[in-house]
Amino acid sequence: MPPEELWNRLHSRPFDPFRIHLSDGTYYDVRHPDLMIVGRRSAVVGIKRSEEPARQDEPLLYDYSATLALMHVVRLEPLEAAAGPT
């Protein structure tokens, strides 16, 4: 995937959370634009253990990160569609 395509999705306003699907079948959810950095060949996703949104009085911090090679990104999809019916 071209880095510009991912960057544009990340910086669209209003931001819509999305899921990144990789060629090996893994995926990562991006729930906030501050939890991702896009480079020319890779992207870093910050991952929180809890899916609860941060309170306004606490900083947005991640627990660990994953580095993704952009050549393995096969598609992006809105997180609501990825979650399926409840």
What does the secondary structure layout of this molecule look like, with pairings?
Blueprint (H helix, E strand, L loop, with lengths): L2 H8 L7 E5 L4 E4 L5 E3 L3 E6 L16 E6 L3 E6 H5 L3
Antiparallel strand pairs: 1-2, 1-6, 3-4, 4-5
Describe the structure.
The protein has a three-stranded antiparallel sheet with strand order 2-1-6. Strands 3-4-5 form a three-stranded antiparallel sheet, covered by helices on one side. It contains two helices and six strands, in the order αββββββα. It is globular. It is an alpha+beta fold and 86 residues long. Strand 1 (18-22) and strand 2 (27-30) form a beta hairpin. Helix content is 15%, strand content 35%. The chain has one domain (3-81): SH3 type barrels (Roll), CATH 2.30.30.
**Computed CA radius of gyration, to the nearest angstrom:** 13 Å
Q: What are the segments in which pLDDT stays under 50 over at least 5 consecutive residues?
A: none
What is the fold-level CATH name, i.e. the topology? SH3 type barrels
Euclidean distance between termini CA atoms? 30 Å
| Count of DSSP H/I helices | 2
* Multimeric state: single chain
Report the sheet with the most strands, covering strand number, pairing sense and barrel closure: 3 strands, antiparallel
What does the average pLDDT come to? 89
The number of E-state strands comes to 6
* Secondary-structure element string: HEEEEEEH
Q: Roughly what fraction of the amino acids lie in strands? A: 25-35%
**Neighbour order of strands in the largest sheet:** 2-1-6
* Count of discrete domains: 1
Helical content class? 10-25%
CATH class wording: Mainly Beta
Which structural category fits the helices and strands?
A: alpha+beta
Shape: globular
CATH architecture designation: Roll
